[in-house]
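Lab notebook, bench 4. We co-purified these components, and the gel suggests they stay together. Before we commit to crystallization screens, I want a quick structural picture of the whole thing.
Request: model the full complex, all chains together.
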Amino acid sequence: MRFAIRNPQSGYVMATVTIDTVGKHDGQSVTICGWLTHKRSSGRIRFLVLRDGTGTIQCTLIQGETSEQALDLYPELTHESSLTVTGTVRRDKRAPGGYEILASSIEVLQIAETYPISPKEHGVGFLMDHRHLWLRSSRQQAILRIRHAVVNAARKFFDDQGFTLLDAPIFTPSSCEGTTTLFETDYFGDRKAFLSQSGQLYMEAGAMAFGKVYCYGPTFRAEKSKTRRHLTEFWMIEPEIAFADLETIMKLAEALIVAIVEEVLETRRQELKLLGRDITRLEKIQPPFYVISYDEAVQILKDAGESLPWGEDFGASQETIVSNHFDKPVLIHRYPAQTKAFYMKNDPNRPEVALCVDMLAPEGYGEIIGGGQREDDPVILKEKIEKAELPAESFDWYLDLRRYGSVPHAGFGLGIERAVAWICGFEHVRESIPFPRLLDRLYP
Amino acid sequence: MRFAIRNPQSGYVMATVTIDTVGKHDGQSVTICGWLTHKRSSGRIRFLVLRDGTGTIQCTLIQGETSEQALDLYPELTHESSLTVTGTVRRDKRAPGGYEILASSIEVLQIAETYPISPKEHGVGFLMDHRHLWLRSSRQQAILRIRHAVVNAARKFFDDQGFTLLDAPIFTPSSCEGTTTLFETDYFGDRKAFLSQSGQLYMEAGAMAFGKVYCYGPTFRAEKSKTRRHLTEFWMIEPEIAFADLETIMKLAEALIVAIVEEVLETRRQELKLLGRDITRLEKIQPPFYVISYDEAVQILKDAGESLPWGEDFGASQETIVSNHFDKPVLIHRYPAQTKAFYMKNDPNRPEVALCVDMLAPEGYGEIIGGGQREDDPVILKEKIEKAELPAESFDWYLDLRRYGSVPHAGFGLGIERAVAWICGFEHVRESIPFPRLLDRLYP
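Here is the predicted assembly.
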């Protein structure tokens, strides 16, 4: 049995009540639009549970109270069928939202075909193939609502401190950190455009104009590795500040993470609970965070039986060991200059290390923030660009920033998906973005 | 004469006062960090005007009050040199911000090389080549601050109404409106990824999960045309609502534009004035906007001596004629279905027109919003995909949205650069984005 989609009336969504606000209509008759998540019957009473994106609610169908037409429909209703239920809101302490609806009538928009996602266990590949439907699950909704809160908290943090939002370009004429991990596209037949790996260089130009700027947008890395921390397309928020040094942005990074966690705890506690997150771990995220040097991190590794020659960068497993060592985020500063990108400023007191910082989330989650103070001397920067064998003409504009009123400046990037994965408490970043793009995943 | 960049001290930016807050330090000694925008001397008094991204301030150098070292430096200081000025804040009615600084000492960070942008007229090509420096001009800063306010107002509008932010993917397996205007990239050797032209299809999946969603991100069109309204990379905010029809989103679009203009008028009035914008024009942007059908728009064109056969889409010049006709935005609904994309729902009462709407900004600015109600019948949608010769396998997930609880739904996209260009009152969109990408522009 199939029903045609009804001819919609004007101002549809405005005229109905959403599930999160039924409490305001206690004792009144309302119409709810939504999808059926499950149904059950107990003797002569039938129950429909509806979701509408704002919550779920139980609708009760009782002979004598509910129309015959609705009672007749009950057996036909399948999982994810779309319908409207009209009925009286009733306070019920046992109900999840505190209210249920005593249905008087039902209007079916569509009887859904057999829904592919069932309560039984599915493999991740299957669920990812059905990501457009998987989003309807309460767990995925909780994660993405937390993501929304993370993004909002970060933007608010910078807005409130007088940063100007500058959307960075995606198409760039050159690479910032080598071309091996760059996606490229033909740009009208006569040249190539590379997809940005970071808005940083452009934010540096912005900082010289606006003082404090940030961008929030997608960035791209064509990494062939399949790890739990990598997406080919991921979102970053990147602040950059003029007249700032490493110390400034270390403090800023700490304050940002505190603000984000605070906002999530304040507005998304229910979602964290639904995910089974140990909230006490997040409540510990208070300043001051731990601050150690690269050298001290190497010592931690050594003590853990994992020796790393000085000068090498940490791998994911080493980051895990170090971050597991702390119950709060840890800021690791002054990595060997050779492990870092050309634009990093070397420590004048110790030129073999860069004035850089990575922040590792606790509980083994690894790097969520990377940044540092930028090289501000035009002569040294030019040498570094040459040494890195980058095309000089592509970076001429970037050198201009050191020719016309160069100033100490610094900034960092926060990877949104990694931050969300840590806050939600899951291993793999793939569920922390609506439609993940991975080495083997471009659909849907 | 050249000065080395000094070795920065810790917590630099935090320890100094920004120009916008000097008023709080009236009579006190402060240190300002900034760049020199101009200087002049009058008898024995010398003036330096500094900008720091938060504003500009005049610093006065007077023999006896100012250090000899600072007075000696004065002749060396070039446009855009970076420096710090320490001195006493003094109230001065004639000063732009109401205050000036009586300088006691100066520290130079860098004497800038001869700055390429001078007060004389430059061609747009030259300025765009120097976009990374051009951003420092007060006009460009005003525009991009207005852009920031537009983005914030739009996001706040949706957040406050319970929309969930869902960042849409950029890499997509297929095109939404034909492949001729798509940028593509090799995706790990075995397939192609296309850069998204719109997040809409993904927002439709989101609406079925969250009820109301929006995305804000870059979108890409490989249009070979050089017009004042097109960028190859532009940003859109796209809401999508389940259980909504054309009428719902027409009201929503109107309310959004009203909220955006209100926010700009409230927080960026100074910037509008600096741009010479006729603010009374913006103050007229109050509901209700004009609402006409495509048929009525064709009649307006005919009356203006510009005849258009029924069934053809409007060109830019025709949009200009229609939008010039109104002192407020005009919503044009129900275009011929043949001019619109496959996913548009046809009007059941008049199948030759689509349930779509474009909003044209007044004063000839043309389209800033496009949207409509989506086809929700799986059978009709499948036919439309076939008729448009789109690859069925790429849209199978999209058809799923019509198989599992299809509901009437609608949404639209607001082009940020076009909205900013209109609000700022300039013809070409290229200045309304930090780093514009055009047919012939990929640098810096």
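Chain B touches chain A through 111 residues (CB under 8 Å). Worth comparing against the SEC data before the next meeting. The CA atoms of residues 25 and 209 of chain B lie 52 Å apart.
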